[in-house]
Amino acid sequence: MNQKNTISKLSKSFALRIIRLYKYLLEEKHEYIMSKQVYRSGTSIGANIAESRNAQSNADYINKLNIALKEADETMYWLELLHESDTIDEKQFESLANDLNIIIGTLINIIKKLKEGLC
Description:
The protein is mostly helical.
């Protein structure tokens, strides 16, 4: 499986996990502010990756992936806040952070290869 298909599948799977986290935070923790922030940024990763498939140029493609990377970084920030405020536990945080780190690493690798002309 090539990296472009891999990142699409990883980001969609992660978005579904973020949706479940959002519901949990609302229903179980009654957390309304950070839950909405992590929901927006966490689902935006995959949305930008999906949008990149119809890029008009290589530069546009790289730009969409860079936006996805920024959203992934923002998502990590919200996950860290949720963890450090004891809103989610260590196990929840580690599981989500590990998946997110894979997405971030994959995005960085794809962007680097695109800039070097290897993709």
